[in-house]
């Protein structure tokens, strides 16, 4: 619709230009001077209309292009991922570092969970001796603090990991199973030591 109006204005401009030329051919110079102002006013008005319609068309085309670009961008695809099982802790001090690192990543540092929810999840993953831990305050922070005080004994954890490596049984007959067990035990202990982030003088 806007384009058709612009076409009409352009057509009118062309007709006025032709009429003006014809008028100049049949009119005396004195009369031309008197009517020049009228022609200029008509031309100015038509030019204003032309520019206005062109501006509107440009804005419409720009909006259409933006909309087309958005329509080409696929909607965010939500893939249903398998549920992540929370790590469990049974009171074995050797497993504390791995447990806490995973639990902190999934629950403690999760800003979408409130303290009550975090406490619920923490209690749900405590097994064995760790499940018997009690606190004076029934809060997430108090329970986590008691667990840290009890199980985050870095020197004892380091000693246990080193003993686990030193006590690995010698492999008399090479077998894939024994080699895998050896590698798994060493990797588990080294990973636990790395998670402690110990300073050299500790």
Automatic annotation (TrEMBL):
It comes from Araneus ventricosus (Orbweaver spider). This is Uncharacterized protein. It holds the Pfam family DUF1759. The lineage of its organism: Eukaryota, Metazoa, Ecdysozoa, Arthropoda, Chelicerata. PANTHER family: PROTEIN CBG08539 (PTHR22954:SF3), RETROVIRAL PROTEASE-RELATED (PTHR22954). InterPro entries: DUF1759.
């Amino acid at each position: 619709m806007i384009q058709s109006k612009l076409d009409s204005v352009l057509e009118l401009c062309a007709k006025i230009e032709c009429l003006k030329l014809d008028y100049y051919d049949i009119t005396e110079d004195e009369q031309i001077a008197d009517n020049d102002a009228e022609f200029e006013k008509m031309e100015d008005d038509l030019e204003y209309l032309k520019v206005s319609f062109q501006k509107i068309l440009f804005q419409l085309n720009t909006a259409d292009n933006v909309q087309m670009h958005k329509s080409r961008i696929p909607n965010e695809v939500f893939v249903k991922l398998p549920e992540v099982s929370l790590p469990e802790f049974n009171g074995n001090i050797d497993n504390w570092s791995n447990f806490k690192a995973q639990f902190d990543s999934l629950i403690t540092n999760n800003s979408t969970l409130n303290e009550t929810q975090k406490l619920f999840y923490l209690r749900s993953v405590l097994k064995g001796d760790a499940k018997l831990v009690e606190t004076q305050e029934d809060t997430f922070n108090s329970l986590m603090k008691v667990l840290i005080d009890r199980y985050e004994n870095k020197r004892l954890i380091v000693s246990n990991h080193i003993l686990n490596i030193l006590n690995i049984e010698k492999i008399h007959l090479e077998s894939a199973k024994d080699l895998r067990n050896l590698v798994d035990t060493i990797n588990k202990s080294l990973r636990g030591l790395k998670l402690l982030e110990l300073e050299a003088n500790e």
